[in-house]
């Protein structure tokens, strides 16, 4: 089974952007972690990052045809995008939401995520290990059918 791992805006700057919040690992490191974790779980991770809302929506729609689950860090679009929520609501497989930082102990505007109303599970504050945890849970949900 294929799991789409989608990363939203500014996550291409991981490792350079506010490392005190988001850590030192790059997007390349995170994608490698996702691919190796997925392989260990008998999954294939298809990793994509975009700064554009429409591109993330197109990939979520593509996942309806090709994926068994989505792991998504919608980044700032978590807090703003009804369109990404609607795209995820059109998917009938597991969706796991990841935030590297603990959004609940940050600014007020980060504490609501539209995506959380669809997500099967939400992981926040575990750093990039959150992606590994998300894939582990996605594998369990895919296995459970
Ligand atoms: C983030 C948290 C968001 O509030 C922020 O806009 C991001 C990254 C995280 O991974 O902690 O870009 O999703």
UniProtKB/TrEMBL annotation:
The source's domain of life comes to: Bacteria
Question: Site annotation (Transition state stabilizer): which residues?
Answer: 17
What InterPro entries would the database entry show?
A: DHquinase_II, DHquinase_II_CS, DHquinase_II_sf
What Pfam families does the record point to?
DHquinase_II (PF01220)
Q: Which reaction does it catalyse?
A: 3-dehydroquinate = 3-dehydroshikimate + H2O
Top-level EC class as recorded in UniProt: lyase
Q: In which pathway does it act?
A: Metabolic intermediate biosynthesis; chorismate biosynthesis; chorismate from D-erythrose 4-phosphate and phosphoenolpyruvate: step 3/7
- The name on file for this protein is 3-dehydroquinate dehydratase
Which HAMAP family does this entry report, sorted A to Z?
Answer: AroQ
Query: Mind listing the GO molecular function terms for this protein?
Result: 3-dehydroquinate dehydratase activity
- Keyword tags: Amino-acid biosynthesis, Aromatic amino acid biosynthesis, Lyase
Native source organism of the sequence:
Roseibium alexandrii (strain DSM 17067 / NCIMB 14079 / DFL-11)
Q: Which family does it belong to?
A: Belongs to the type-II 3-dehydroquinase family.
What does the record give as EC number?
4.2.1.10
Q: In which residues is substrate bound?
A: 73, 79, 86, 100-101, 110
Active site positions, chain numbering: 22, 99
Subunit structure, briefly? Homododecamer.
Q: Name one GO biological process term.
A: amino acid biosynthetic process
| Function as written in the Swiss-Prot or TrEMBL entry | Catalyzes a trans-dehydration via an enolate intermediate.
**Which gene underlies this protein?**
aroQ
């Amino acid at each position: 089974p294929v799991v789409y791992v989608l990363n939203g805006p500014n996550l291409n700057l991981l490792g350079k952007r506010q490392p005190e919040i988001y850590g030192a690992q790059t997007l390349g490191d995170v994608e490698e972690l996702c691919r190796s974790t997925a392989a260990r779980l008998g999954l294939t991770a298809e990793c994509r990052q975009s700064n554009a809302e429409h591109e993330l929506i197109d990939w979520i729609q593509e996942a309806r045809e090709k994926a068994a689950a989505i792991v998504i860090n919608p980044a700032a679009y978590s807090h703003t995008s009804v369109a990404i929520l609607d795209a995820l609501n059109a998917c009938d497989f597991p969706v796991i939401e990841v935030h590297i930082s603990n959004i609940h102990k940050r600014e007020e505007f980060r504490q609501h995520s539209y995506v959380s109303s669809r997500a099967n599970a939400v992981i926040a504050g575990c750093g990039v290990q959150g992606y590994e945890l998300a894939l582990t849970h996605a594998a369990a949900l895919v296995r459970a059918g």
